[in-house]
Amino acid sequence: MPDGFCSSACFLFLLPDPFQEEMFICLLLQLFFSCSFSTTEDGGDSRRDFSQGSDSKEYCLSDRDIVEVVRTEYVYTRPPPWSDALPTIHVVTPTYSRPVQKAELTRLSNTFLHVPNLHWILVEDSQRRTALVTRLLRDTGLNYTHLNVETPRNYKLRGDMRDPRIPRGTMQRNLALRWLRETFNRNNSQPGIVYFADDDNTYSLELFEEMRTTRRVSVWPVAFVGGLRYESPKVNAAGKVYGWKTVFDPHRPFAIDMAGFAVNLRLILQRPQAYFKLRGVKGGYQESSLLRELVTLNDLEPKAANCTKILVWHTRTEKPVLVNEGKKGFTDPNVEI
């Protein structure tokens, strides 16, 4: 590679935008002539046979490599600019205090920052909105609503069959539904989608574009649930959901994970009686307790290539081992983690 090439390439990124195109063309010409026509001091051809074990990176980069480097100059706007042409996705996330809470919410917010027209409704299971979550939300730059409601202690305890504890996050999701109904009237013309996203799951950006066209209730597979690689709606040749690929109680009205469906906001507003039931609902039936108030099986809209693609994973963060902290704590408790 001729002397000065690296300095020229670096100089490209220091120039103002109007000069970059001209400089880029010059660099490509310089690269072409230096790679194709340069000779050694004794007049021989300086081109090497890269197939004989030498590393091509030592010599000349291809034009394609240069173009890829230039592309990294594009700066992504986070979050994307708001568009009146897109429905708003209202993402409801219950959360609770634990050592990995901030890490989980940071990871999740980094995903949401890439989704246009997203409104994050974060609901803490606590007596008051905590400073940790307040700061995190403020620093993300996302559009958000911060709520809190504490699950009563007797609901958290595992009781007998007559009084089992309710699944975590139920009261928080219900508060978000109430907030939506109080904020938007039943005749609201603003298009929107409601999605329940737990703070420890993993979401593909494609998932949010899939759900954005939901007319009533859309559904898709979820990985790592029910002791399976994935659970999924069964879809027939006509594109209709007729059952469920699951081992756990497949005869549930809607045998689907919380991460596996989205609801049109207008439907939520039109059915004020639709909530997640707190009492008399067995494990795995929370989703059904809401959906049966909204739609029938025939109304479901399969997404993700007719439920053949995995776009959400029911992941779990390993609980950190903090045995060396001791009872009094070894590290500074004022340092937020």
Automatic annotation (TrEMBL):
<feature type="binding site">
    <location>
        <position position="200"/>
    </location>
    <ligand>
        <name>Mn(2+)</name>
    </ligand>
</feature>
<keyword id="KW-1133">Transmembrane helix</keyword>
<keyword id="KW-0808">Transferase</keyword>
<dbReference type="GO" id="GO:0005975">
    <property type="term" value="P:carbohydrate metabolic process"/>
</dbReference>
<feature type="binding site">
    <location>
        <position position="173"/>
    </location>
    <ligand>
        <name>UDP-alpha-D-glucuronate</name>
    </ligand>
</feature>
<dbReference type="GO" id="GO:0000139">
    <property type="term" value="C:Golgi membrane"/>
</dbReference>
<keyword id="KW-0472">Membrane</keyword>
<feature type="glycosylation site" description="N-linked (GlcNAc...) asparagine">
    <location>
        <position position="306"/>
    </location>
</feature>
<keyword id="KW-0597">Phosphoprotein</keyword>
<feature type="site" description="Interaction with galactose moiety of substrate glycoprotein">
    <location>
        <position position="231"/>
    </location>
</feature>
<dbReference type="InterPro" id="IPR029044">
    <property type="entry name" value="Nucleotide-diphossugar_trans"/>
</dbReference>
<keyword id="KW-0964">Secreted</keyword>
<dbReference type="GO" id="GO:0015018">
    <property type="term" value="F:galactosylgalactosylxylosylprotein 3-beta-glucuronosyltransferase activity"/>
</dbReference>
<feature type="binding site">
    <location>
        <begin position="198"/>
        <end position="200"/>
    </location>
    <ligand>
        <name>UDP-alpha-D-glucuronate</name>
    </ligand>
</feature>
<keyword id="KW-0812">Transmembrane</keyword>
<feature type="site" description="Interaction with galactose moiety of substrate glycoprotein">
    <location>
        <position position="324"/>
    </location>
</feature>
<dbReference type="InterPro" id="IPR005027">
    <property type="entry name" value="Glyco_trans_43"/>
</dbReference>
<protein>
    <recommendedName>
        <fullName>Galactosylgalactosylxylosylprotein 3-beta-glucuronosyltransferase</fullName>
        <ecNumber>2.4.1.135</ecNumber>
    </recommendedName>
</protein>
<keyword id="KW-0464">Manganese</keyword>
<keyword id="KW-0735">Signal-anchor</keyword>
<keyword id="KW-0479">Metal-binding</keyword>
<feature type="binding site">
    <location>
        <position position="125"/>
    </location>
    <ligand>
        <name>UDP-alpha-D-glucuronate</name>
    </ligand>
</feature>
<feature type="binding site">
    <location>
        <position position="168"/>
    </location>
    <ligand>
        <name>UDP-alpha-D-glucuronate</name>
    </ligand>
</feature>
<comment type="subunit">
    <text>Homodimer. Interacts with SAR1A.</text>
</comment>
<dbReference type="GO" id="GO:0050650">
    <property type="term" value="P:chondroitin sulfate proteoglycan biosynthetic process"/>
</dbReference>
<comment type="similarity">
    <text>Belongs to the glycosyltransferase 43 family.</text>
</comment>
<keyword id="KW-0325">Glycoprotein</keyword>
<feature type="binding site">
    <location>
        <begin position="94"/>
        <end position="96"/>
    </location>
    <ligand>
        <name>UDP-alpha-D-glucuronate</name>
    </ligand>
</feature>
<comment type="pathway">
    <text>Protein modification; protein glycosylation.</text>
</comment>
<dbReference type="GO" id="GO:0046872">
    <property type="term" value="F:metal ion binding"/>
</dbReference>
<feature type="active site" description="Proton donor/acceptor">
    <location>
        <position position="287"/>
    </location>
</feature>
<comment type="function">
    <text>Involved in the biosynthesis of L2/HNK-1 carbohydrate epitope on glycoproteins. Can also play a role in glycosaminoglycan biosynthesis. Substrates include asialo-orosomucoid (ASOR), asialo-fetuin, and asialo-neural cell adhesion molecule. Requires sphingomyelin for activity: stearoyl-sphingomyelin was the most effective, followed by palmitoyl-sphingomyelin and lignoceroyl-sphingomyelin. Activity was demonstrated only for sphingomyelin with a saturated fatty acid and not for that with an unsaturated fatty acid, regardless of the length of the acyl group.</text>
</comment>
<dbReference type="GO" id="GO:0005576">
    <property type="term" value="C:extracellular region"/>
</dbReference>
<dbReference type="Pfam" id="PF03360">
    <property type="entry name" value="Glyco_transf_43"/>
</dbReference>
<feature type="binding site">
    <location>
        <begin position="314"/>
        <end position="316"/>
    </location>
    <ligand>
        <name>UDP-alpha-D-glucuronate</name>
    </ligand>
</feature>
<keyword id="KW-0333">Golgi apparatus</keyword>
